[in-house]
Amino acid sequence: MKYRRYVLLVSVLLVSLFLLSLGTRGGGAGRPADLLAVLITPLEATLAKVQRSALGVWTTYRDWKNVRRENQALRAEVERLRIQSLQVEDTHRENLRLRRLLALRDRLPLSALAGEVIAKEWGGWVRSVTVNRGRRDGIARLTPAIVPEGLLGRVVEVRARAAVIQLLNDPASAVAVMVQRTRTAGVAEGEPGGAVRLKFMARDGGGVQVGDLVVTSGLGGVFPKGLPVGRVAAVEDKGSALFHYALLVPVADFARVEEVLLLTGQTGADLFSHFLTPPET
Amino acid sequence: MRLTFALMLLGGGLAQTSVAPALRIGGVAPDIPLILTVLLGLRRGPEVGCLSGFAVGLLQDVAAGGFVGAQALTKALVGFAAGLASERLWVSSPMVQVPGLVFLTFAEGLTRYWLLQLFHFPASFGDVMVHVVLPQALYNGFLGAAAVLALTAVETWRESSPWR
Question: Would you put residue B148 in left (φ > 0), alpha (ψ -120 to 50) or beta?
């Protein structure tokens, strides 16, 4: 009984050696191996198929995970590029605005200082913007503030490094103006509703029409002559009243103004011709 | 039980040509039938180890297209040796089984090389040892450790299971 295992071992070794010797005689392992091959080949094929399927599932899962990760990365990239695009667009627009402002400053025959809007007051009581130029930059009270389109307002309060500009449509704002085509004089006043109204035009001052451009008249000595103020949107006929009234659409877009020019110098010349250059796009 | 055993041997023998290539690391594939043979020999004794080794070795020989009988012989020897070791040495601990598997893989490689030398196998001993036998022995040890742990876990579960 004890030797049975050794008999088994020797038998197995002999069978193996027999098979080996069959293989080395040039005829392969002969019929036993062929028979075994016939049995295991379909099994191998089945196993290979199962393995391929399992690998396929695994590969699909891995691909799906990769696609998911890639998708997330691409989404983040798209988001980043979108923000970058907006920043570029913003910079481009700012660049255009500044170019126009600088071009205007270069054209004007008086000294002017560019300022950036750092605050806005848009309530019904007060309409103003604050710029980052003040006493240290030589800004004084009543300094006119313009944008490339025309007049914005005037400085009403000066601080060391900032100045508050009263906008044309502030209820307390009043600017001496004239209709550019007919030279009819009047006063442009702001209203609590945000509109700008042209008041005190002589009734028979001569055919003010919708679309007429209104510019500063230079009277009063605060604003230089010829700064565009707005266009007539409607003429109000008050019947037998002594004066004509008109509603103006200001040339400056108060809500979107971001940079201004502060006119620090003085001039008696009519500046209207300097605003005729078409805006750059 | 015998059917399970036969299926296990068949699966183990064929796994070498189907599963093992997928487990390759750096060009080295584990010898799954050898791991199976050693574990069976350690747990079931020399007779089972010897027959298992012969069966899976023969399957490998036929499936791989080498010298039919070479692996049958070497694996039968390894299975027998593992079975004898389990009777004479304390081999129930994974700390013994895994190094034992590494050693037996190495021994099987040496035996196979010696056997194939009789048939004028062309590769040099150094190349075979460095590129085949030693890396495969280490890989077998690693995979064998995982197999031993899995088997231990399954046996523990079966012993504690109320349905056994």
Answer: alpha
* Residue from A256, A258, A251 nearest A275 by CA: A251
Q: What is the pLDDT of residues A212-224, one digit of tens each?
A: 999 999 988 899 9
Reported confidence tier of residue A123, pLDDT bands at 50, 70, 90: low
Instruction: Indicate whether B160 pLDDT > 70.
Output: yes
Domain boundary among A107, A123, A140: A107
Give the contacts of A203 (CB within 8 A, at least 6 positions apart): A241, A242, A243, A244
Q: What is the pLDDT of residues A62-86, one digit of tens each?
A: 889 899 999 999 999 999 999 999 9
* pLDDT: which is higher, A74 or A195: A74
For chain B, say whether A47 makes contact (Cβ under 8 Å).
yes
Q: Which of A2, A20, A25, A58 to mutate to test the interface with B (most CBs of B within 10 A)?
A: A20
Domain presence at residue A280: no
Q: Count of domains in chain B? A: 1
- pLDDT attached to residue A281: 47
Residue A154's nearest CA partner among A175, A177, A133 is: A175
Chain A contact present for B85, CB below 8 A: no
Residue A219, domain CATH: 2.40.10.340
Q: Do B62 and A9 touch (CB under 8 A)?
A: no
B2: which 2 tokens? Answer: 């015998």
Domain count for chain A: 2
Nearest CA in chain B to A49: B18
Give the tokens for residue A185. 């004089």
Residue A281 inside a domain? The answer is no
Structure confidence at residue A229 (pLDDT): 95
Closest listed residue to residue A266, CA positions, set A144, A101, A120: A144
Judgement on whether residues A15 and A95 belong to the same structural domain of the protein: yes
Rounded to the nearest angstrom, the gap between the alpha carbon of residue A225 and the centroid of all alpha carbons in its chain is 35
At residue A200, φ and ψ (nearest 5 deg) are 60, 35
Which H helix or E strand runs over B139?
Answer: helix B134-160
Confidence of residue A204 (pLDDT cuts 50, 70, 90): low
Q: What is the mean pLDDT of residues B128-147?
A: 87
ipTM: 0.78
Query: Do residues A141 and A176 share a domain?
Result: yes
From chain B, the residues in CB contact with A22 under 8 A are 68-69
C-beta neighbour count of A235 within 10 angstroms = 16
The domain in which residue A178 lies consists of 112-275
User: What is the arithmetic mean of pLDDT over A76-97?
Assistant: 92
Q: Number of CB pairs < 8 Å for A and B?
A: 92
